[in-house]
Amino acid sequence: MFMPISRENLRPQTVLSDFYAQFAGLRLAAQNFIARQTRYRQTMSELQALSARELADLGIHRSHIRRLALEAMKKEPQNEA
Prior knowledge:
This protein is mainly alpha-helical. The protein is built from three helices and no strands.
């Protein structure tokens, strides 16, 4: 990720472009983290709001809610259009 210092990469433009590239990567990682956490919380709240009867109709035991939310968090988001 980091380059060794040399005369080539000491130019301000090179240093700035490297900084911007690293910042963009961190920003993308933060956005992905927030999206995953949002999916997890949304899934948890939706499943916890269901009654025992509704969960049974879906074939879900209340103890499986956390696991299902974790699986939903790991999935890629689907385009909603």
